[in-house]
Write a structure and sequence with these properties.
Elements lengths: L1 H8 L16 H10 L3 H12 L4 H30 L3 H9 L1 H34 L14 H20 L1 H34 L6 H12 L14 H10 L11 H4 L11 H26 L8 H39 L5 H16 L3 H4 L1 H28 L6 H5 L5 H19 L11 H23 L1
Helix pairs in contact: 2-8, 2-12, 3-6, 3-12, 3-13, 4-10, 4-12, 5-6, 6-7, 6-13, 6-14, 6-16, 7-8, 7-13, 7-14, 8-12, 8-13, 12-13, 13-14, 16-18, 16-19, 18-19
Length: 468
C-alpha cells in the first residue's frame, strides 16, 4: 500500500525512481530559470557594487563562475543522481545512518530558515516604499522601526500559510510569477542603463562606448563601502560557483536530477545561472550603482526603493513577488527537513512553525545585508556531506571498501562520516581565521571538499578494517 501511494504521487522517497517516471531536458529548464531569478538577486547584485568590484571582474567572474557551477551539476551531482535515483536524504541515511541524517536535516532546515528570512526582508522593503516607514541601512543588524517589524510579520505570515498549504500551491505561485519576473529584471537593467546615460550625459552608440560607461560609472572598482569585503575577479568567480554549493557540490539536487532521463540534462541549470545569476545580478547592481551615482551618501541596499525608481509600482510588485517566490519553496523545504526529525507532527504545523522562525530571522536585516557571506557559509556547512556521497559512490568500490556502510551494518551513526563532516568544518573555520587572503570564506570550500573526502576515506578504512 505504501509503495502504491508513493508511485501515485510520484515522490519515491525511499526507493529509486523508475524509468517510466523520468523526464526530459525541457522539464528542468523552466524550473531552474524560475528558481534562480528571484528575491536573492535583488540583494546580491547591489552587494557586488558595495564590494567595490570592477566591470571586468564582475562580468568575467560571473561568466566563469556560473560555468563552473553548471559543470558541477553536470559532473558531480547528476551522474550519481541518474545512477542511484535516490533522494539525498535517503542516500545519506544509507551512508551515514538515521541519527546523523537527523543532525544534517536540522542544520539544513535552520540555514533554509535564515535564507527565507532574508527574502522576507526583501519583500518588506517594497512595503516600506508604500507606507513610508524608516528602513534599515547597509550595516544595520537590528530592526529600526515599528513599521519595519509589522511589515515583516505580515509578509512572513502570508508566505508561511502558502508554504504550509503544500507544494502544489507553492508551485502554482512560482510558475505564474517566474516568466513575468524575468522580463521585469531585464527591464531593470535596460531602464537603469538608460537612466545612467541621462544622469552622466554619456554618449553611448556602440558596444565599446557602453563598456566604457560600465567601467567608469557602474562598476568602477576601488575601495568597498564601509563594512564590506573588497571583491576581485576571483571573489566573484568563487561566489558564483559556490553560492549554490549545497545544491551541486553538496548534492542536494540529487533529489531533483534523480528524475532526469540523462545526466547531461543537468545542463538545464545554465538557464538559472545565466538568467538569474548573470543577467539579474547585473541588472540589480546597475540600479544600486545609479543610486550611489545620484547620492553617494545613500548606501542603503533596499530592493524596494531601487525597483520603484526604475519601474514604479511594477517594480514594487516585482520585489514583493520575487521575495515571495523564493521564500515560499525555501520555507517548504525547511519544513520537510524539520518534519523528517519529527515525523509524528503534521507537515502543516511544522511548516507554520518553520515560517515563524524564518519571519523572526527576517526581522534582523543584518542577515540580508550580509547575504554574500551567509550564502558562502551555508554552502560550506553542507559541502562535506557532498564529498562523503561522492566518495562513497565512486571511490569506495574502486578501493575495495563497502559503500552504504550504515545500511550494511545497521548503524544509526556512521562515525567516519560524522567526524569527517565536523572535522572539515573546524579545519575550514581555522583556515578562514588564519587571516590569509587566499583562505577567505569564499575560497576555503574548495580545499575543504578534498579535506572531507580524504578524511572520510581514511576514517572509513580504519572503521571497516576494525569491523572486519
Amino acid at each position: 500500500m505504501a509503495e502504491d501511494k508513493q508511485e501515485k504521487h510520484g515522490e519515491f522517497e525511499r526507493e529509486p525512481v523508475p524509468a517510466s517516471k523520468t523526464r526530459g531536458l525541457k522539464a528542468f529548464v523552466g524550473m531552474y530559470a524560475g528558481e534562480h531569478c528571484a528575491g536573492t538577486e535583488l540583494m546580491i547584485g547591489p552587494l557586488f557594487v558595495a564590494a567595490g568590484v570592477s566591470a571586468f571582474d564582475v562580468v568575467g567572474g560571473l561568466l566563469l563562475g556560473n560555468l563552473l557551477a553548471v559543470l558541477s551539476w553536470m559532473f558531480l551531482c547528476a551522474p550519481i543522481a541518474v545512477r542511484a535515483r535516490l533522494t539525498l536524504y535517503y542516500q545519506l541515511e544509507k551512508i551515514c545512518g538515521r541519527h546523523l541524517v537527523t543532525l544534517y536535516n536540522l542544520a539544513n532546515g535552520v540555514m533554509f530558515c535564515f535564507l527565507a528570512g532574508s527574502m522576507i526582508t526583501v519583500s518588506a522593503t517594497a512595503l516600506g516604499v508604500w507606507f513610508n516607514f524608516p528602513m534599515p541601512g547597509l550595516n544595520d543588524l537590528l530592526p529600526n522601526s515599528t513599521g519595519w517589524v509589522l511589515s515583516v510579520l505580515a509578509v512572513g505570515a502570508l508566505i508561511s500559510v502558502v508554504a504550509a498549504w503544500g507544494y502544489d500551491m507553492v508551485s502554482k505561485v512560482a510558475n505564474i510569477a517566474a516568466p513575468w519576473m524575468v522580463l521585469v529584471f531585464l527591464g531593470f537593467g535596460i531602464i537603469g542603463l538608460r537612466q545612467f546615460i541621462e544622469a552622466t550625459g554619456a554618449e553611448v552608440n556602440s558596444l565599446s562606448s557602453l563598456w566604457e560607461l560600465c567601467k567608469n560609472a557602474v562598476w568602477k572598482g576601488g575601495e568597498p563601502l564601509s563594512g564590506q569585503v573588497k571583491f576581485t575577479f576571483w571573489h566573484v568567480t568563487f561566489f558564483a560557483w559556490f553560492c549554490n554549493m549545497a545544491m551541486h557540490v553538496g548534492m542536494a539536487d540529487l533529489s531533483v536530477f534523480r528524475f532526469a532521463k540523462k545526466s547531461w540534462h543537468s545542463c538545464a541549470a545554465a538557464s538559472g545561472m545565466y538568467v538569474g545569476h548573470f543577467m539579474a545580478w547585473l541588472a540589480a547592481s546597475i540600479l544600486y550603482a545609479l543610486q550611489l551615482h545620484l547620492d553617494p551618501a545613500n548606501t542603503d541596499v533596499l530592493p524596494g526603493p531601487l525597483a520603484y525608481r526604475a519601474a514604479g509600482v511594477a517594480g514594487l510588485i516585482c520585489v514583493i513577488v520575487a521575495g515571495w517566490t523564493t521564500a515560499n519553496p525555501t520555507i517548504y523545504r525547511a519544513g520537510l527537513a524539520f518534519q523528517a526529525i519529527m515525523p509524528k507532527v503534521s507537515r502543516f504545523k511544522v511548516t507554520i512553525c518553520t515560517g515563524l522562525l524564518a519571519t523572526v530571522a527576517g526581522l534582523f536585516p543584518g542577515i540580508a545585508m550580509k547575504l554574500l557571506g551567509f550564502v558562502a557559509l551555508y554552502g560550506l556547512i553542507l559541502m562535506p556531506m557532498g564529498a562523503v556521497v561522492f566518495t562513497d559512490f565512486w571511490i569506495f568500490p574502486k578501493l575495495g571498501m563497502q559503500p552504504y556502510y550504515a545500511e550494511h551494518k545497521s548503524l544509526k551513526i556512521n562515525w567516519a562520516a560524522g567526524i569527517a563532516w565536523i572535522a572539515t568544518l573546524v579545519i575550514c573555520v581555522a583556515l578562514v581565521k588564519s587571516g590569509n587572503p587566499l583562505l577567505q570564506l569564499y575560497f576555503v570550500a574548495l580545499p575543504g571538499w578534498f579535506i572531507a573526502a580524504a578524511l572520510y576515506i581514511g576514517l572509513s578504512k580504519m572503521q571497516q578494517k576494525g569491523d572486519a
